[in-house]
Write a structure and sequence with these properties.
The complex is a heterodimer of chains A (about 120) and B (about 210). Helices cover about 50% and strands about 10% of the residues of chain A. By secondary structure, chain A is mainly α. A 3-stranded antiparallel β-sheet of chain A has the order 1-3-2. In chain A, helix 1 packs across helix 4. Chain B is rod-shaped. Classes of the chains: A mainly alpha (about 120), B mainly alpha (about 210).
């Protein structure tokens, strides 16, 4: 899908909304598969978001400062590959809130110029 | 095919499309997908999904993301190809150094002419002040030429060149040297052009 400069794609908005609802339910951080699973549940879809689409969107949201990420502690891994954990930033939460309120996502330049 | 075999296939694909990218970028993507695949298989098995169904689910996620993977690789390659700030600074430093050497060599070569005449002729003799003044004026002209060729410059430089031009004009008037006055006028006009250009440049970029 071709992107208008300074706007979010529907998938990116959806990620922020799902992350916001996870945050509200007490889950401050999330990982790739957990997010794909939560999105599938919310959409009632049969398939999980593809790897390429999901991680490209996460990277883009991080570049825009709407998400932050870090590797989970080695101690928490327990024999499985360690996960990259994502969290909504303050700006990301605001954008998600607007999307949730049903407003059109405003150009990012305007959103990021607002006071924190 | 077992889910593990399918996951290995996906991991190979990830290693393929992350090849030649900066190591931290490539490794992050590889590690993230590894964790995702592990979580996917564990989750589906815990929910009682059959092995073929899990493998098909993994294959489907890979296939549907191929275009995004390619686009991501293209984006990351572009970022990696951009010169770093340090490289840009070094490039600018080298350019300034080369300009300075060119101007210095040009001034030295031109000043050789009056030097030879002064050393070999009894009639025409330049004082040390004459050489210094001529050197300053010639250097100013050299800077203007360098700036014009490179299409750069700022208001401070324009002001400095204008000051040198005024000094040349004043010295020419006092010494009754029309050539020096003309040189001063050329420098002042060049400084005005340079200053005007530097002043209007930000507005052009802002559009």
């Amino acid at each position: 899908m071709r992107r208008k400069p300074g706007t979010l794609l529907p998938l990116e908005t959806e990620i922020l909304e799902v992350a916001q609802s996870m945050l509200r339910s007490g889950q401050a951080t999330f990982h790739g598969f957990g997010l794909a699973h939560a999105m599938r549940d919310q959409n009632g879809s049969r398939s999980l978001t593809s790897h390429g689409t999901l991680y490209k969107a996460l990277g883009r949201l991080e570049e825009l400062g709407l998400l932050s990420s870090h590797w989970e502690d080695a101690a928490a891994v327990e024999g499985r590959p360690r996960r990259r954990l994502y969290a909504l930033t303050g700006e990301g939460a605001r954008v998600a809130e607007r999307a949730r309120a049903g407003k059109t996502v405003a150009p990012l330049a305007q959103l990021t110029s607002e006071p924190a | 095919m077992t889910p593990e075999r399918m996951a290995e296939l996906v991991a190979r694909w990830v290693r393929f499309y992350t090849r030649d990218l900066p190591e931290p970028v490539a490794q992050r993507r590889i590690d993230e997908i590894d964790a995702d695949l592990h979580d996917h298989i564990a989750h589906e098995r815990a929910n009682g999904a059959g092995e073929p169904r899990i493998a098909i689910g993994i294959a489907s996620r890979m296939a549907r993301g191929l275009a995004a993977d390619a686009a991501w690789r293209g984006h990351q390659s572009k970022i990696a190809a951009r010169p770093s700030t340090r490289e840009k600074t070094m490039k600018v430093s080298r350019s300034v150094y080369r300009s300075a050497v060119r101007v210095a060599l040009g001034v030295a070569l031109l000043l050789l002419v009056p030097l030879v005449v002064t050393l070999t002729s009894d009639g025409e003799a330049w004082s040390a002040f004459d050489f210094v003044a001529a050197g300053v004026f010639l250097a100013a002209i050299g800077v203007v030429i360098e700036l014009a060729v490179k299409r750069v410059g700022n208001l401070t430089l324009a002001l400095g060149i204008a000051v040198v031009g005024v000094l040349a004009g004043v010295a020419g008037e006092a010494d009754d040297a029309p050539g020096l006055v003309l040189l001063g006028l050329v420098l002042i006009v060049s400084a005005c052009a340079l200053g005007l250009r530097a002043w209007t440049r930000p507005a052009q970029h802002g559009r």
